[in-house]
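Query structure, 231 tokens:
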């Protein structure tokens, strides 16, 4: 497994391209469903958008002092790469998908059948669902992969809200890594401070000194970070 986010992102991009070509091959029509190529192209677009927004080619340098977040990104990218390899192996016939393995249905309990009814019908569908989930998790990491929103626009003075914001992150997601919780709490404080600075500017622009927009709540600031999969 590569330890470079940039290299893994390039490998995933190549994996998407190769799998796209394979799924467009008429010879695999009996292996994949008609809508799976469209789903793959959609996930490829989402991945390309993540690469662009996150600046994947710069993340190795940006995260050199943030090992925990870097490891999470590497694991997710490696997972996507393996899934793309599995999908390719299925389409070229190197791997038999589980949906084409004959099992005795009578051996399944009623509960198992009900569970299967809500599951992907083919292994390719399952692979695409896992790819979609992994890309979603990369997007959730966006708040920690990017530089803090207020960098270079506010002073380095610690916000009086910071201890409370860090505690809010840790109480909302008790399983999240302590270092990440502190980073995210600081990001919330930075967003709050930036918003207050914007309010001051807006207030001065009102001829009558009218009130600016309401300050966002802590919950609103937290939700903007999209952190549900960081624990």
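Result returned for the query:
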């Amino acid at each position: 497994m590569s330890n470079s986010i940039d290299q893994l992102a390039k490998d995933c991009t190549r994996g998407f391209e190769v799998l796209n070509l394979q799924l467009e091959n008429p010879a695999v029509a009996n292996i994949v469903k008609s809508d799976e190529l469209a789903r793959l192209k959609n996930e490829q677009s989402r991945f390309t958008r993540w690469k662009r927004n996150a600046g994947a080619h710069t993340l190795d340098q940006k995260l050199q002092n943030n090992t925990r977040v870097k490891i999470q990104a590497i694991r997710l990218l490696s997972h996507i790469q393996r899934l793309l390899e599995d999908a390719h192996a299925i389409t070229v016939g190197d791997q038999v998908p589980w949906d084409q393995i004959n099992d005795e249905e009578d051996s399944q309990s009623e509960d198992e059948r009900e569970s299967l009814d809500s599951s992907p019908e083919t292994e390719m569908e399952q692979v695409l669902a896992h790819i979609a989930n992994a890309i979603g998790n990369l997007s959730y990491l966006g708040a920690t992969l990017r530089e803090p929103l207020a960098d270079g626009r506010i002073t380095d003075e610690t916000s009086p809200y910071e201890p409370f914001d860090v505690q809010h992150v840790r109480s909302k997601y008790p399983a999240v890594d302590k270092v990440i919780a502190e980073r995210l709490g600081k990001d919330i404080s930075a967003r709050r401070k930036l918003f207050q600075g914007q309010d001051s500017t807006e207030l001065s622009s009102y001829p009558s000194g009218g009130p600016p927009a309401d300050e966002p709540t802590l919950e609103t600031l937290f939700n903007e970070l999209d952190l549900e999969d960081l624990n």
